[in-house]
Specification:
The protein has a single domain, classed as Alpha-Beta Plaits. Helix content is 38%, strand content 22%. The termini are far apart.
Length: 149
């Protein structure tokens, strides 16, 4: 028996940062992503976002990589969103994503940050938040490819 934990804060943005996640129906999308995660034996602690991006805080089993989880979420939810009449403008997810690991001690901080997305984005635009999120986690940004779809 192995004992592991891996907590990830993931940010997915819509293709070309389009405002395509209808706030009126965003809970449907979050429930769908929750179902994908459950099928992969993952536990989601919080999902939230805005019309152009989604934050997911999740723990993954040791048998599943972050990249594999994100690929499944993006692929499966994209197919569903494109056929759902409640999301008529959705064209897909952006090519890149951000995903960083956190400790169990940071769980409440991340969960509360995601809960406050609507309030947060009254003051901070997504591009600034995304750039800061990446840099604060020690990753250099190659401007040639940043937010290019």
């Amino acid at each position: 028996m192995s004992y592991t934990t891996s907590f990830y804060h993931i940010v997915l943005r819509t293709y070309r940062s389009g405002l395509t996640i209808n706030e009126e129906h965003e809970e449907e999308l979050y429930a769908y992503i929750l179902g994908i995660a459950k099928n992969l034996n993952c536990k989601i602690y919080r999902i939230g976002g805005m019309p152009d991006h989604v934050h997911i805080f999740v723990s993954l089993p040791s048998s599943l990589s972050l990249a594999a989880f994100v690929q499944r979420v993006k692929t499966d939810s994209s197919k569903w969103l494109k056929t759902n009449p409640n999301f008529p403008r959705f064209r897909g997810w952006g090519h890149e994503y951000a995903g960083f690991s956190y400790s169990v001690r940071e769980k409440d901080i991340i969960v509360n940050y995601i809960k406050r997305q609507k309030e947060h984005h009254k003051k901070t635009e997504f591009v600034k938040e995304y750039r800061s999120f990446i840099k604060d986690n020690g990753v250099d940004i190659d401007e040639r490819y940043f937010l290019c779809d």
